[in-house]
Amino acid sequence: MSDTGFAAALGEQIAYEFGASQQYIAVAVYYDDETLPRLAAHFYRQSLEERNHAMMMVQYLLDAGEQISIPGVAAPTVRFADVVEPVVLALAQEKRVTEQIGGLATLARDNGDYAGEQFMQWFIKEQVEEVASMTSLLKVVERARENPLLAEEYLAREAAAEAADPTAPHAAGGAL
User: Fold this and answer.
1) What pTM was computed for the model?
2) Strands, E assignment, the chain
3) Which CATH number fits domain 6-159: 1.20.1260.10, 3.10.105.10, 2.40.10.10, 1.10.10.10?
């Protein structure tokens, strides 16, 4: 890895990924408390996914021989006005992460860090999927605002279509 600042920027992204994981746990707990188990399960899975993204970045830095500092994160939002607000927050978070990932890829490319740029390609693809998925979920919960059980039914149907991505980078600690 060349001295481009990519490692430091990736270290900052690790904090954002852990922060996203914590935020998704808070959303899941909110839905659990509202007795919406499928929405809760969806966001518990999202939390694990964000945690694994952070751990993929940790593994990349380990492999590159870089110093790693595991950062603390800000407290997540835990109170929501209705069943729609958590998904609005989640979509905004995914859009922000998409911009951050694009910035990391640009930083690596502009500085000739081709390994860093290649590493970010999977995350770019992942963010397209994350924004699309959260956009769809937002449309569903907005329509189901008065009857969130309709959103539960939607997630029950959609869950059958999920599959693991064999092209995902390896996460530090394995698939814990």
Assistant:
1) 0.89
2) none
3) 1.20.1260.10
